[in-house]
Structure formats: structure tokens, C-alpha cells
Amino acid sequence: MAKKILLVEDEENERLLYTEELEKEGFEIKSVADGKLALKIIEKENFDLIILDLQMPMMDGIETLGSILMKKRNLPVIIYTAYPQYKDQFLTWAADAYLIKSADLTLLKEKVAAILK
Amino acid sequence: MNPQDVTTFILAGGKGERLHPLTKDRAKPAVPFGGIYRIIDFPLSNAINSGLRKIYIFTQYKSLSLQRHIREGWNIFSRELGEFIDMVPAQKRIGEDWYQGTADSVMQNMNILEEERPKHILILSGDQVYKMDYKRMIQQHIENKADLTISVFEVPRQDAHRFGVLSVKDEKVVEFREKPSEPTADPKNPDVCLISMGIYIFNLDILIKRTIEDAKRTDSSHDFGKDIIPSMIGKENIYAFRFIDENKKDTKYWKDIGTIDAYWESNMDLVNLDPLLNLYDRTWPIRTFQEQYPPAKTVFSGEERKASVTDSMLSGGCIISGGKVTHSVLSSNVRANSFCEITDSILFDNVNVGRYSRLHKVIIDKNVQVPQGTEVGYNPEADRKKFHVSPNGIVVIPKNYKW
């Protein structure tokens, strides 16, 4: 069975791009546009991994990460953001990886594969 | 050591179920002790006597009484100088649960550490009675270049199986076992074991890393003693700090007053000639909140109707009016009326003992009127029908009880 990934990303173009690219790798992708929706959906569905943007409306990624941790303690999370400066926020240490967004998705795909292998 | 580099966390969420009914309406740190104190006054006084002025108190269950005590009695710091005592109730900032364990309270308040970024975090329990200079421990922590320092207490080997026992090599902690059947002895003295007092100094990054790591485990109870410390052994630089008692007696005093019997005994220790816990030493004062009351007073000195107080502690506002008080601890505003006899007992605020009543080995919580001619503590069977009676026969009458 395909491993299931939840993508939390407010930019629609990026959502579509990452979904398409990761589906090519054989993963099943669900995506939502903000942290609140992410917390709702993980209550109902099981995921193997979350890819999380940090700067989002409604509920930001760091707050979302903290709540994910309390709800689904061992669910792996990759932070995927354009901003390196959030690394000094302690809660980001709870993520399994902190990756900086890039046009080339190789690094993201490698990380996803490594965590889900 | 610069006290500004240290943030103190006092974990005050303890339910103290075995102290029921004293903990029916209050968290264990708010349980009265020694007439005028609450248990939390001890770690708080230790902290300020050690020069520590950045203090967070994490509360959870039944915290109203505790909050009131801290607000009324401990509003003594100047925030402008960077000093504070802040109460942190479980805010459910992240997640929707109450604190699940002691480590969870740190996890859920990570934002505090992010803002403060102290070099070291001193973690204390709000449940314990002792006098300790944390400066010495912090000093040793810095000198050892430790990641974590655990304060240890020496107990006779045969008692150690009830505690978390540490094994040390050159004072470095090499093993930690919770309630071991065969506890390892102290290399310096084969008759004793070193037990963890639940007092820790962490470096900031290690505390964060280990707390987050533990938060991600589903098989963890998220407790420092049970989960985090054991997971750090062998990986990090952990040292033991041998407790130095500021009472400076031959026998060291540190009590986690877990049961009614232990509670009664430690109060009774205070009325001995030379108690292990010295509350009268002005070099290590224990402070508290007290309402303003007039001085304690005794009246009637006739042959038959005569006030008598021996081997006892009387707090402000007490009136011993022709009653006899022996080997007892009385909180504020207690009245002992004519011909009553109070022995080996602990009476909380506003207890009024009626004429001819006799109390023996009784703990009476706040605001209780004992009717004229009542006897408690002389007939265990009758007492058991009405009240909680401890294994050693201490009768506890709950707060606001009405006859």
C-alpha cells in the first residue's frame, strides 16, 4: 500500500507542484492550506508523514507542529520552508527534518524516502 | 555563578492523593505545614535564599488555594529588575491535554524558555520540605561542565527500594533505576544508597532536546524521573550533587511528605526540643503569607480552670482559654476552650475546640467547630465510622466539617 503524506502548504501553486512530484514517487498525497485544517484531518485519517510549511495564515506552522506532536506523538514531520531563521524556535527541533524550499525537489524527495523507507 | 543565568521551574501540579482529605480542595504544595507555612514555601524560600529570582510555578489540579497563597504571600519581587514569580496553569497552549507528566509541563511551556533563554534551568518539586542552597549545586554543575546534575540524598540501603536509585562512579551518574529490588550502594559508603530528590539542573539545549525527544515517544509517561533521566544515562554528562542541608545537623532533613502518617510525624518533629528542621535560624529564613493576627494568648490560671501549653507551636491569633494543649501544632486563630485537652494533634486555621472536648492524634483542617464534650482519637472504631483514620491511627477531620 502506498505511504500516505499530508502536505500543509498555503500557496496553491506549490501545493499542486509538490503533490504532482511526490505522487510520481508513488506516494499518496493529501493537502490542506493551513494548520487548523491539518489538525482536523489528522484526527480522522492516518498519515505516515507530514510536510509542513511554516508561514501560513490562521495557524502558523510552529504552532501546528506543537499540536501535531501532542496529538500524534510519533508521527514524522518535515518542515519545508523558505525561511532558515525559524531554526532557533525550539519547537522546530521536534521535526524530523528542516528543509529550505528550492526549485529542485531532489532533497525533499530524498528525505521523504529516507523517513518512509 | 550568576543567578541571572538560571531560571527556576517549580512543578506544583502534585495531587497528593495519599494525603487525602487534606488534598481534597488543594494541591499538595498548598497543604499547610508547621502552623503557618504551606509546603511550597520551602522550595520557594530556598530559591530566594539562594539568590534565584526568576521563578515559574507550574500548576494544574485544584490550584486556587495555591494561587491565592502565592499572590498574597509572595508578591515580593520587582519585575523591573527582572525578578518574578509567575504562576503557569496548564494553558493547553499546544495540544488539548492537561500536563500528562512533569516533562509535559516543560514541553507545553517551551515558549517560556524561548523567550528567556537561560543558561541553566533548575527544576524543583513543590511537594518537598527541606532547606537547601541551590547555589552550591549550580556551582558544582558549572565546575563539572555537566549537562545535567541531580541532587541526591543518602538513605539506608534497606529503604532505597522505594525510590529512584542512582549509581555513581567518581560522582558521575552511570545508572538510574526506579524502585530497584537490589539497589546499588554508594561507593563511598556501602550502608547507604543515593536516591534522586527530584531536583535537577539542566543546560538549556539538553533540556529542550531531551524533552522533545521524550514528547515524541508514545510509550513514555513524560516524567523527568521515570522517562527523561533514564534515557540520558550513558549519553550525557550527568553528575550527582550530594545534598547539603542548611539545617547543618548530623542527620540531614529532606521530606517528601507522601502520607498522613508522614505528615503527622514531620509536624510532631517540629515541637521536639531540637527539631531536625530548624525554623528559627535567621540565616536561612522560611517565609510565608500570614494574615495579620494579634499575638497568641493564654487565659485563666486558677487551680482547676487553667490554660496550659507545653511542647507546642502556637500561631498568631490563638487563644488558649482554660484549655490544655500538649505536644501539638496550632495554626492561626485557633481557640481552645476551658477544660479541653489537645494532645499530639495538628489544628489548622480557625478551629474552635469546645469545652471539655478531648483530642488525641487528630488533624483538623480549617474552619471546624468541635462541639463541647467531643472526643476524637480515643475510640478508633467510632472514629473510623465518621472520619479518615490513617494506618498509624491518626484521625483527619476535613475542612469545613460540621458535626
Give a quick summary of the entry.
The complex is a heterodimer of chains A (117) and B (403). With 117 residues, chain A is an alpha/beta fold. Chain A has four helices and five strands, in the order βαβαβαββα.
Write the layout of secondary structure elements.
The complex is a heterodimer of chains A (117) and B (403).
Chain A: E1 4-8, H1 12-24, E2 28-32, H2 35-44, E3 49-52, H3 61-71, E4 77-81, E5 97-100, H4 106-116
Parallel strand pairs in A: 1-2, 1-3, 3-4, 4-5
Chain B: E1 6-11, E2 32-33, E3 37-38, H1 41-49, E4 54-59, H2 64-73, E5 84-89, H3 102-107, H4 110-116, E6 120-125, E7 128-130, H5 134-143, E8 148-156, E9 164-169, E10 172-178, E11 192-203, H6 204-215, H7 224-232, E12 238-242, E13 254-256, H8 260-270, E14 297-299, E15 308-310, E16 313-314, E17 319-321, E18 324-326, E19 329-330, E20 335-336, E21 341-343, E22 346-347, E23 352-353, E24 358-360, E25 362-364, E26 369-370, E27 375-376, H9 380-386, E28 388-389, E29 395-397
Parallel strand pairs in B: 1-4, 1-6, 4-5, 8-12, 14-17, 15-18, 16-19, 17-20, 18-21, 19-22, 20-23, 21-24, 22-25, 23-26, 24-27, 25-29
Antiparallel strand pairs in B: 2-3, 6-11, 7-13, 8-11, 9-10, 9-11, 28-29
Please give a handful of descriptors for the protein shown.
heterodimer, A: 117 residues, alpha/beta, Rossmann fold, five-stranded parallel β-sheet, 5 strands, B: Spore Coat Polysaccharide Biosynthesis Protein SpsA, Chain A, UDP N-Acetylglucosamine Acyltransferase, domain 1, nine-stranded mixed β-sheet, six-stranded mixed β-sheet, 9 helices, globular
